[in-house]
Design goal:
Layout lengths: L1 H18 L1 H15 L5 H37 L3 H29 L33 H17 L5 H20 L3 H14 L2 H7 L2 H22 L4 H21 L2 H15 L5 H9 L5 H17 L7 H18 L6 H13 L3 H41 L14
Length: about 425
């Protein structure tokens, strides 16, 4: 009898493990890596089409979700909403600036080890979806405009009493939360699966592994070292806390790596951040407001690539004064790139040309390398935003002591 009960318990544990989203993610990755090359072409197209469909649906829903998340949080903060936005913008600017200076410091110290590479990025992507919904989404319908709309509604609701505004905003937030928790979260493994199939079928996985190994490895190491520092700071250098934070945020890194979209990963980043914060609902305002501005992976990778390209083209490293001027404009430009989803690199090109002396060939090369490194950069952006949300919350709670808030939006965990 005991043997039967033990077997039943073991099967139950296995079943529960299979229902776990992280386990399903690992299974999806293994299936594609081991068997993806054997998938019939229609099956691969169907998997990729489903992932794109889910991504497009996410991008349709996101503006409303982001607006409701931000507005509800700011309304809950009432008179401190403007202070919160100001502190957050300053925090994002400092965060980006520190990451750029970190890349410069590493580049100067490691000049002799910076690898020399050759660029040849011609690829033939044969896997195309059966259909796409992105063509039907208006250009103005973006998460960035959702941030603007949510901020305006939140500041209005926090400073002026508008009839029924609070009720509408909070009800919309609840509906959006149900859509994400009941639908999108449960489809994450399939969401990742389709993009992995695309990456392997197109040869991108093989390209990442076999080509540009030295430069990709070098940049990845530099980024990973900084991510480790951020995680250690967020955990206050406590092992148990570090383990808990990583356990909650690593699935978002996998999702963003395969989708190469911080915006499409945003709902899952919010969910992960909620588990790490003392005031879980704080994530609903914080993550949407930081996703397209606070891009640590972008800052480190592009700043470091500038130094790599300068070396490869025989140009001297910029001195500290020249780099400081470049840093100022680079950091300010991050606030403008939020309005150009997926095209941030093109906003930065004039800055590279004017302050670092980039030629046409150099700018073409940094754009190409951004394409290859995009999965790593995007996943780093997402993971760092999840970790820095903890740091910002800690800063905001410290500011509260000197600028008391009558009502916190969400009760803190004990």
């Amino acid at each position: 009898m005991n043997d039967i009960m033990q077997k039943i318990e073991q099967k139950t544990r296995v079943f529960r493990a299979l229902k776990s989203m992280p386990v399903q993610l690992v299974i999806s990755i293994l299936i594609v890596v081991l068997c993806g090359s054997y998938f019939p072409h229609p099956v691969a197209r169907a998997a990729y089409t489903f992932s794109l469909l889910m991504k497009d649906l996410l991008l349709f829903v996101l503006p409303l979700a982001v607006a409701s998340f931000i507005a509800s949080t700011l309304i809950s903060f009432r008179q401190n909403a403007l202070l919160l936005v100001l502190v957050l913008l300053i925090f994002e600017g400092i965060s980006n600036a520190i990451s750029v200076m970190y890349a410069y410091g590493v580049g100067v110290l490691c000049q002799q080890w910076i690898p020399v590479f050759q660029a040849n990025l011609s690829q033939d992507f044969q896997l195309v979806p059966f259909f796409q919904m992105s063509d039907y989404r208006p250009g103005f319908w973006s998460s960035v405009n959702g941030v603007c709309m949510g901020t305006l509604l939140g500041v209005l609701g926090a400073t002026v009493r508008v009839a029924h505004l609070d009720t509408i905003v909070f009800r919309m937030r609840d509906y959006m939360g149900l859509v994400f928790s009941r639908v999108f979260v449960r489809l994450i493994p399939l969401y990742v699966f389709g993009f992995l199939v695309f990456m392997q079928h197109s040869g991108l996985l093989e390209e990442i592994v076999n080509s540009y190994v030295s430069i990709i490895a070098f940049v990845t190491f530099v980024i990973f070292a900084y991510l480790t520092i951020i995680l250690l700071i967020a955990s206050r250098f406590k092992g148990n806390e570090l383990q808990r934070i990583i356990r909650h945020i690593w699935p978002t890194g996998v999702i963003s790596f395969t989708t190469m979209s911080s915006a499409a990963t945003m709902p899952f980043t919010i969910e992960a951040a909620e588990k790490n914060l003392k005031t879980p609902g704080f994530a609903a305002m914080l993550i949407p407001a930081t996703t397209n501005i606070q891009q640590v992976g972008d800052c480190i990778a592009n700043a470091f690539l500038c130094l790599v390209i300068l070396k490869n083209f025989g140009k001297p490293m910029p001195d500290l004064m020249s780099w400081s001027i470049f840093l100022m404009w680079f950091t300010l430009a991050r606030y403008t790139t939020a309005a150009v989803l997926g095209g941030a690199i093109f906003i930065m090109v004039p800055i590279y040309e004017h302050y670092l002396g980039f030629t046409y060939e150099m700018t073409a090369l940094i754009i190409a390398l951004n394409v290859v490194l995009d999965p790593i950069i995007t996943s780093t952006n997402v993971l760092c935003n999840g970790a820095l949300a903890i740091v910002f919350e800690r800063l905001w709670l410290w500011i509260k002591r000197y600028h008391p808030v009558k009502t916190m939006p969400f009760s803190a965990r004990q």
